[in-house]
Structure formats: C-alpha cells, structure tokens
Amino acid sequence: MKNRILNVGNITKVGILTAAALLLSIIELPIRFAPDFYKIDLSSTVVLLGSYIVGPLAGIIIAVLKTVLKALIAGTTTAFVGEYVDIIITILYVFPAAITYRNHKSLKNAVLGMLVGIVSMTFFGCLLNYFLLIPVYARIAGLPVEHIVKAAALLNTKVSDLKSLVLFVAAPFNVMKGTVCSIAAYLCLLPLKKLINNQEQ
Fold first, then answer.
1. 3-state secondary structure at position 33
2. pTM of the full predicted structure?
C-alpha cells in the first residue's frame, strides 16, 4: 500500500511537482535553428524527477496535469495539437527512463534511463512531427506544409522539405531538450537520493 500512487504522501508529491513543472513550463527558450513553435523549457526535468521519486505512473500524471493546466491558464496557439504532442513527447522521455531506473535504483541506472528516454523521445518525436504535428499545425493555420518548410529553411539552410525539417530541426531539438533536462535532473538527483530511496522502504 505504501508504494501505491493513490496515497496522501504520493498525491502531495505529485501536486507539488505538478506546480513546479507548471511554473518552469512558462519559461520558454526559442531555438535559433527552428520555427517559433519549437521551444525548450525545463518542466520535463520535474516530470522526470517525479517519475523517479514516486514512479512511472506519477510521471505520466504530472506531464498531463502540467500541460492541461498551462493550456487552461495561457491558452493555446495550435488548437491543442502542440499540447497533445507535448504530453506524448514528455511521456516518451520520462516513462522509459523511469522503467529503466525502477529495475535497479542507482545513479548509473538513472543516467542510463535518461539516455533511453532521449533516444525514445527523439525517434518517436520525429514520427509525430512528420505525421501529426507539422501537417495538422499547417492545416489549422490555413497554410500549406511547404510554407512552414520555407520558414524553417530561412533559419536552417539544411531544410528543403518536410523530411529534412524533421531530420535537421525536430530531431536535434528533441536531443537538445532531452539533454538539457537530463543534466538538470542529474544535478538534482544527489540531494534527492535519500527521498528517492525511501520510496522503496
């Protein structure tokens, strides 16, 4: 019973972590080589730590709550397509990491989990960008996909079509976001190690 997500202690942790993730999600950094709907924030760091501290399910809950609350507070510029993809990408990052870490809770496995998460979010993120995010975003904006490709090409000379946009913009963006969030999470792990270990006791 102690390790289940639905207890007062875990619900409290999830609530605090969701609030922290929401605050961090407001601070977004644009990427020079990418269109303006690609922005990095550190909210996934908190989601990852939550999945390590409480468990994989908690990570999913925090990811969903953080994104939904942000959309309700700040609104959406992508008819919720961006928010939907953000939830999926975050889960693709934190869930494999949490599963890898849960099997053996050590700093080495925590780092291994982060690497697995980065690979997961990059690979599947490229598929989501190619088949969902960019085409649907273009449709909602009333623009042809080629218009977005041309806009990206002005920022990144390697972009010439949708495939190259995904390869040279979406892929490095996800690698960069995953790496930044993982480094931040790693720096937080040592002071939080006792709290994380207590989840198993």
1. coil
2. 0.88
